[in-house]
Amino acid sequence: MYFCATLLALSAGVWGGEAREVPEESAALDATQAGDMPVDLELVIASDVSTSMDIEEKRLQRDGFVAAFRSAEVQRAIARGARRRIAVVYVEWGSADRQRVVVPWTLIDSPASAFAFAERLAGTFPGRLTYGTALGNALAFGARLFERNSYEGERWVIDVSGDGMSNRGEPLEVVRREVLARGIVINGLPIVYRDAAETVPFGSVGVDEAATLSLVSNDELVAYFETQVIGGPGAFVVPVKSRAHYAQAIRDKLVREIAGMPAPARQARGTGEASAVETAPNAQISSVLSRSHWVRWRE
């Protein structure tokens, strides 16, 4: 339901393939007949567009990813992989029930296909997904997307940005544990260039809701991402330290993610069984990622 009516299907295997659009049902049929396409990386880009992000910041974030996929550095990183191709989906997120796929799963296997993905993203308008910051729900939404594509990646990575701490939705600790147990790596892009006068109040969910406010410093937000958000083999954080730093930070982060680490152990696609990597502490929360619809967590 989150996917567009068509997806971008690209010629595979070698650089220089031409991009072409085909109906989504045709692509699904081809995938069923041929099996999932092996890729070096399946990457979910999860961009924060909550109300604490102003429109300029959202555009800088989007444009940073556009510029990155147009860059020779990112294209070279993809070409150096064993299969010389990756699959990418671009997501925006805000509060508990506010996530959307902006650009669906796309194969990038050439400069042409990298530019095509960038152009498609450039043609979108950043969303305004209100009512708080639900990092747990964003990670769970991203994790489910790995089961909804026709690729088989050596690695699964969620690249999540954010300018604040989680204050709504599913408990981040619970969801993060389950995501990591599935062998998915989480990397972070904390947005930390505001000075004290601009610091976003923790708990702020917009002018239409009351909230208890306490300030979170830039250093505290980086530490939060490092200790409570990211995880998995080789997981890392790249802070965005200024508005001018957006494009460089995103490009450097993508190059590092694409270069990657050896694939971690993970559970089979589509199963609900816990991995041996890390298991949930009790049965009550062990199925949080496999629910077909979110139910707000209650103590």
Keywords:
299 residues; disordered C terminus; globular; single chain; disordered N terminus; alpha/beta; 9 strands; two-stranded antiparallel sheet; 5-stranded mixed sheet
Can I get a quick summary?
Strand 1 (6-10) and strand 2 form a beta hairpin. It is built from eight helices and nine strands. With 299 residues, the protein is α/β, with parallel strands linked by helices.
Helix and strand arrangement:
Layout: E1 6-10, E2 19-23, H1 24-34, E3 37-48, H2 55-70, H3 72-79, E4 86-93, E5 99-108, H4 111-122, H5 135-145, E6 151-162, H6 172-181, E7 184-190, E8 201-202, E9 214-215, H7 218-229, H8 246-259
Parallel strand pairs: 3-4, 3-6, 6-7
Antiparallel strand pairs: 1-2, 4-5, 8-9
Helix pairs in contact: 2-4, 2-8, 3-8, 5-6
Description:
The protein is of the alpha/beta class. Helices cover 31% and strands 21% of the residues. The protein has 8 helices and 9 strands. It has helices spanning 24-34, 55-70, 72-79, 111-122, 135-145, 172-181, 218-229, 246-259; strands spanning 6-10, 19-23, 37-48, 86-93, 99-108, 151-162, 184-190, 201-202, 214-215. A hairpin with a 5-residue loop joins strand 4 (86-93) and strand 5. The radius of gyration is 18 Å and the shape is globular. Mean pLDDT is 74; it is low at 1-34, 196-214 and 271-299.
Report the sheet-strand fraction: 15-25%
Shape: globular
Quickly give the structural class: alpha/beta
* N-to-C span: 30 Å
